[in-house]
Design brief:
Keywords: Glycoprotein, GPI-anchor, Lipoprotein, Membrane, Signal, Transmembrane, Transmembrane helix. By secondary structure, the chain is α+β, with helices and mostly antiparallel strands. It is built from three helices and six strands, in the order αβββαβββα.
Length: 153
């Protein structure tokens, strides 16, 4: 029996394992300002808005830093809130802290500012599906056992 026929099931199992591993997705963030688009206000209205691939924006701009999504809520003289959602880039892990938070002053109040790279709205890369990986591993072991049995004949 030739080696190619014995290795075919093993290669098929390997291909199944690779398919079961989803690829990493780029960080996608909402980029808008309630100053120019009321849908950016809270509660957030995603209708007819599209998110932005921050990794691509970072590469185009030439940043070598890590991408994060940031949301900042400010009010001027205690009046209407302004919401700004954008991509930010930092060499250091932000752990929820803001990258370029505006400073509160006599007329500007920062009510909220946070960053994320794996929370709701941040679209972090998904982990592998456990059931798919288990099935692929079982298939790979079965194929390897079958190939070994054929070689021993």
């Amino acid at each position: 029996m030739d080696l190619a026929r014995c290795l075919a099931p093993l290669l098929l199992a390997l291909a199944c394992l690779l398919v079961a591993q989803p690829g990493a997705e780029a960080l996608r963030c909402w980029v808008c300002s309630s100053s120019t688009d009321v849908r950016c206000r809270d509660p957030f209205n995603r209708t007819h808005l599209s998110d932005v691939d921050c990794e691509r924006a970072r590469a185009v701009a030439g940043y070598g830093d890590r991408a994060y999504c940031q949301k900042t809520v400010t009010s001027i003289n205690g009046g209407e809130q302004k919401v700004l959602r954008k991509c930010v880039f930092s060499r250091e892990a932000l752990d929820g802290r803001c990258f370029d938070q505006p400073q509160s002053s006599d007329f500007l109040t920062v009510e909220h500012c946070s960053t994320c790279d794996d929370a709701d709205g941040c679209n972090a890369a998904p982990g592998p599906a456990p059931a798919a990986l288990s099935a692929a591993a079982a298939l790979a072991l079965s194929a390897a056992a079958l190939a070994a049995a054929r070689l021993l004949r």
